[in-house]
Amino acid sequence: MKVIVMGSGVVGATTAWMLAEAGIDTIVVDRQSSAANETSKGNACLVMPGHSLVWNHPGAPLDHLKSMLQSDPVSSIKLLGNPGIIPWAARFLASCRKSVSARNTLLNLQLARRSAGLTRQIIEQQGLDVGLQTNGSLYWHESKAALELERGHCEFLNSQGVRARIIEADELTSFEPALARSQRELAGALHVEDDFSADCRQFAVQLLERAVNLGKVRVVFDNPIHSIESNGTTITGIDTADGRLQADHYVLSLGPESGRMAKPLGLTLPIAPAKGYSLTVPVRTPAQMPRHGGADLTEFVAVTPLKDRLRITSYASFEGFDQTWKKQNFFRHRRVVEEVFPGLVDWEGEQNEWTGLRPMTPDGLPVIGNARPYDNLWLNTGHGFLGWTQAAASAQVLLHKITRSARDDCCSAFDLRWG
Ligand SMILES: Cc1cc2nc3c(=O)[nH]c(=O)nc-3n(C[C@H](O)[C@H](O)[C@H](O)COP(=O)(O)OP(=O)(O)OC[C@H]3O[C@@H](n4cnc5c(N)ncnc54)[C@H](O)[C@@H]3O)c2cc1C
């Protein structure tokens, strides 16, 4: 059997690794000159079963409207010049019902939990140098009401076997000494022991190298895919800048580009790009680095130690495929970090501004499975804000589906479900 994997982001690279380990000849094709050079490059690097929710919930439409009315909205949506966003938003709203949201959160959590275990195993067995940090994640709150809601989430996590507990305000600074100088009064935090952080890009790059070393994978970089060719029921090849490539099976893992690539085949794959912004900055005193990656859930800013630097991420803007940024897009990052960890960051050092497009499905679940009616086209995409968290289990599920080698009971929910 020979498989072409389209895309070498963390999802495509991990898929190629799983295929190679199963002894399957694989070609990986990407338009970039190295792996994980788009959305998987500058993300928050949190592997977070503890935060594997869906963004859909009954209060989401109102929360979104309130956010839009602020001068610096953390989430925003552009309707004009953003084709496809209105039907996408209608589908999003349809998945905000309490029962649907609860079911989908549970599915995401189960996939994330399985994936976190597999990811740790791969990092440790392959000896990947990815800045693995295993103290768990911390999600802190300013408001007592938000912390009360977090207690409910903590109980839910515990009921699903995820180790988590609430850290009360008076315990917070001994638990995370980097918070001792916070200028904001914090109500407490959720600590998730089973979350961890590691450099997502480095994971994809090094894992793909390992896959090549197994002798089963060939990687073709700098090679944009123009189209996928079919005879109506079977994929017959892909048309790339370097010419036509053929295999027995094809995996579509083009992140936010997946929907556009699938459209000419008549497939409905509603994936909206949700733009996020990150800074990766040096710290003044490494000894003062936070012990935990995590997030300020009042301001929706994630903060992750990556070796000697700090990654700071925020925002979700649904404004199409535009990837430009302005200076003010990083004001929130700087303000929050200065308020919570004053003096930690050397703002004169290199800032590494970056934007990336989360591949968001309207119901918040990835798509992992066959792209009917095409018997040999497979989808592993649409992981939204959880692609790093869910990549390893998603790749394993897909391998089982392609090879029919094991039954994955979890996974009919991730099949293609529109059209
Ligand atoms: C600000 C931010 C913070 C995030 N934080 C986290 C986090 O902490 N934890 C977490 O789990 N997830 C996080 N995410 C989400 C995560 O980064 C994504 O879900 C994940 O990177 C998606 O991976 P992917 O492989 O599907 O897509 P990508 O990484 O985008 O890979 C797609 C690949 O396809 C290639 N490609 C596209 N079109 C073509 C074409 N026509 N021809 C050839 N190649 C093509 C691209 O070059 C790219 O390499 C975050 C995202 C953002 C933006």
> What fraction strand?
15-25%
**Strand element count:** 20
CATH class division of the largest domain = Alpha Beta
Largest sheet: 9 strands, mixed
Number of helices in the DSSP assignment: 10
Provide the CATH topology of the largest domain: D-Amino Acid Oxidase, Chain A, domain 2
Give the CA-based shape.
Answer: globular
Termini separation comes to 29 Å
Provide the low-confidence segments as ranges.
none
CATH architecture of the largest domain: 2-Layer Sandwich
The overall pLDDT, averaged over residues, is 96
At the fourth level of CATH, the homologous superfamily of the largest domain is: D-Amino Acid Oxidase, subunit A, domain 2
Radius of gyration: 21 Å
- What is the helix fraction of residues, given as a range? 25-40%
Q: Work out the count of structural domains.
A: 2
Classify the secondary structure makeup into a structural class.
alpha/beta
The SSE string, one letter per element, is: EHEEHEHHEHEHEEHEEEEEHEEEEHEEEH
Q: Bound compounds, please?
A: flavin-adenine dinucleotide
